[in-house]
């Protein structure tokens, strides 16, 4: 990447765009809602079960002008979901400022491992054991979504729930490849601990992106 482009990326004027698409939000509080997804490349959190490992290497995803990303997004929906990868590896201020200039609602899905930048209407915090969230994102998260791969993830979920703000909605979501094994575990746990809700990847059941 040449120096001038790198400067634009550092400022958030360009972002390593992996893909963008209009679909139905499949997870968490807004499931079933039409939304335009912006997937940003780059992630070093390293979840072994990640279903978009092709997003990890930001160098594979060309820096794209933020204004162009916003022009595409505004054609489809008033709800924009920024995901990754880990989008907070990049400065989200410019992107959310431009989206909000068109009256669009800004949502982010993040591990919270990096400084929170941008102006967000909804923050979905999905923390990972390998690289824990910042204190700020715990305080501001609207929903906590813990992916359950094994029983120890329930312990981790409680640990994370103790750190978020009192209004944060708590979700346990089965890791897709282990769903048959962990769904009964999650259901039992939520029935015993009703502060939690079950989140499913409904888009996968619906066979949509």
From TrEMBL:
Example GO biological process: tRNA queuosine(34) biosynthetic process
Annotated [4Fe-4S] cluster binding sites: 43, 47, 50
Cofactor stoichiometry and binding remark: Binds 1 [4Fe-4S] cluster. The cluster is coordinated with 3 cysteines and an exchangeable S-adenosyl-L-methionine. Binds 1 S-adenosyl-L-methionine per subunit.
Top enzyme class: lyase
Keyword 4Fe-4S part of the UniProt annotation: yes
One of the Pfam families matching this protein, by short name: Radical_SAM
PANTHER family tied to this protein: 7-CARBOXY-7-DEAZAGUANINE SYNTHASE (PTHR42836:SF1)
General function of this protein: Catalyzes the complex heterocyclic radical-mediated conversion of 6-carboxy-5,6,7,8-tetrahydropterin (CPH4) to 7-carboxy-7-deazaguanine (CDG), a step common to the biosynthetic pathways of all 7-deazapurine-containing compounds.
Name of the protein in question: 7-carboxy-7-deazaguanine synthase
Biological source species: Seonamhaeicola aphaedonensis
């Amino acid at each position: 990447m040449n120096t001038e482009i790198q400067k634009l990326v550092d400022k958030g004027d360009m972002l390593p765009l992996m893909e963008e698409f209009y679909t139905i939000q499949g997870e968490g509080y807004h499931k079933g809602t039409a939304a335009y997804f912006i997937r940003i490349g780059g992630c070093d959190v390293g979840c072994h079960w990640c279903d978009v490992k092709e997003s990890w290497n930001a160098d594979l995803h060309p820096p794209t002008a933020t204004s162009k990303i916003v022009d595409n997004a505004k054609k489809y929906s008033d709800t924009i979901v920024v995901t990754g990868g880990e989008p907070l590896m990049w400065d989200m201020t410019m992107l959310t400022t431009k989206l909000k200039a068109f009256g669009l609602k800004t949502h982010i899905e993040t591990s919270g491992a990096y400084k929170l930048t941008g102006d967000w209407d909804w923050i979905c915090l999905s923390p990972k054991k390998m690289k824990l969230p910042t204190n700020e994102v715990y305080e501001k998260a609207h929903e906590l979504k813990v992916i359950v791969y094994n029983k120890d993830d329930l312990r981790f979920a409680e640990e994370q729930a103790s750190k978020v703000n009192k209004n944060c909605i708590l979700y346990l979501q089965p890791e897709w490849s282990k769903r048959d094994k962990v769904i009964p575990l999650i259901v039992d746990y939520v029935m015993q601990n009703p502060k939690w809700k079950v989140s499913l990847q409904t888009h996968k059941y619906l066979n949509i992106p």
